[in-house]
Amino acid sequence: MTRLFKGLTGLKDLFIKLGIKITILCLASEILFLLSVSQAKAEGFSVYDYGARGSSLGGAMLARKPDPSAIAHNPALLTKLPGTWVMAGATAIGTAGKIDHPAGRTAISGSIYTLPHAYFTHQLSDRLFLGVGEFSRFGLGNEYPADWPGRFNIYEVYLMSASLNPVLAFKATKKLSLAVGVELLYAALSMKSKVNFLPMAEIDSRIEEAKDLAVGFNLAGHYQFNPQWAVGIQYRSPIRLKAKGQVDFTYLGPNLPSLIDYFNSNFVDGTVKGVVTLPESIAAGVSYSPTEKISLEIGAVWTRWSRFKELALDFPGSLQLVSPKKWKDTWRVTTGLEWAALDWLDVRVGYNWTESPMTTPNADYTVPTRNRHTYTIGLGFHNERFSLDLAYIYVYCRSRGFNDSPVGAGGNGTLASKSQKFLAHEGAISLTYHF
Questions:
Q1: Which of 169, 202, 391, 398 could form a disulfide with 78 if both were Cys (CB 3.0 to 4.6 A apart)?
Q2: Is the torsion defined by CA of 321, 404, 109, 152 positive or negative?
Q3: Which DSSP category does 412 fall into?
Q4: Quick check: 245 and 203 in contact, CB under 8 A?
């Protein structure tokens, strides 16, 4: 046993040294991300990968002992971070899935996406704390073959977002902390589909980076009943985006002058506009620490997806696309267990269940899954100043059925089909330094 602990100590030193060497690279990646944010993409609509520790705990980070990612999870917890802290890292996401349809089976194109995060916190006084964070709250990335049978609904879609969230936390009493923040959210949507404007004619439609920068706010609170029990809550406001981008149409045939003339008169390249309201959410969690080395938290997030009633896009001329969504409000349930196995090593496990907002009558291939089950594990290596957190996340999505909804009959272009084996493997790393 003594040899085992000596070996683990050597492993700790190796991880700490490695982490120090790559911290600068990780911080540099954050700067590059903010300079070229439109290149980042993620799978899923709501994103909760705010840091490796939080991801390994299933997102259950609203009430327990915090790290700087509390800016995203619950900024009221910043009052428990004395001094100055810096944190940076990223999550890599690999996805897979298939759609079974009358013509056979189509797989999405496998890709690996990255989601960086960065946080800075500083204690201004005994009771006032400042934090600034960069992270993603919304993202979507699915790509099908351009000629697949569901191409009239979608064959490629990417939604990227990045939030810059400055916050102030205030220690109201010894037990109660409050926080308020302003969220600057940048979002960009790229979407490709085919248009079957006549039974024998087909057009390629490409919307590139319909984007906008909008403002929201967040409020948070934390109450520490005693050393064992605590509760946390956060509200994030809705954010209204007025996106503007470029649309390009390409005529794919057949080569008939009358059809080409019709295409040239009605499908004009130019500016596309649309308004979308990203929903508000309320998150709450309760933590319990039976000993100094063990903490358990359970929580829930309610998101008002019913705001997303339709996707309406205005194209050049009189052309307009109105795609009904009629999504429903959803719940996400989280739980996470953390064990301080050694004075320098933490072991973590977590689970969360995320409800899909789509209803079957209006389901489409942009988010081709039902509810998600997420299983997480992670390790934390740390000393008095530095910590390295690692996480692995496995996401399993339940299958979803789709209606036969032909475009010519006023439908959205889906087939009588079913999604199969949609899943994601994720790896996360976060590096934290306490000045």
A1: 169
A2: negative
A3: -
A4: no
Distance CA 148, CA 151 (A): 6
Of 414, 340, 338, 419, the closest CA to residue 376 belongs to: 338
Determine contact, residues 300/238, Cβ cutoff 8 Å. Answer: no
Asked if residue 36 has pLDDT above 50, the reply is no
List Cβ<8 Å contacts ≥24 apart for 102-111.
102/149, 102/415, 102/416, 102/417, 103/149, 105/420, 106/144, 106/145, 106/148, 106/149, 106/150, 108/142, 108/143, 108/144, 108/422, 109/143, 109/144, 109/145, 111/41, 111/141, 111/143
Could you report the per-residue pLDDT of 80-90, keeping only the tens digit for each? Answer: 999 999 999 99
Of 72-76, 216-220, 246-250, the one with minimum mean pLDDT is 246-250
Instruction: Tell me the mean pLDDT in the region 31-57.
Output: 64
Full-model pTM:
0.88
**What homologous superfamily is domain 2-434 in, according to CATH?**
Outer membrane protein transport protein (OMPP1/FadL/TodX) (2.40.160.60)
Nearest to 140 by CA among 315, 284, 278, 234: 278
CB 284 within 8 A of CB 62: yes
How many angstroms separate the CA atoms of 115 and 54, rounded?
14
Residues 142, 420, 414, 371, Cα dihedral to 10°: -80
Any idea what DSSP says for residue 138?
B
DSSP letters spanning 210-224: EEEEEEEEEEEEEEE
Peptide bond into 257 cis (omega under 30): no
Q: How far apart are CA 45 and CA 300, in angstroms?
A: 17
The alpha carbon torsion through 36, 42, 47, 51 (nearest 10 deg) reads -70
What does the buried/exposed string (b/e) look like for 374-395 if buried means 16 or more CB atoms within 10 Å of the residue's CB? bebbbbbbbeeebbbbbbbbeb
Q: How far apart are CA 262 and CA 68, in angstroms?
A: 57
Q: Residue 287: what are its φ and ψ, rounded to 5°?
A: -115, 150
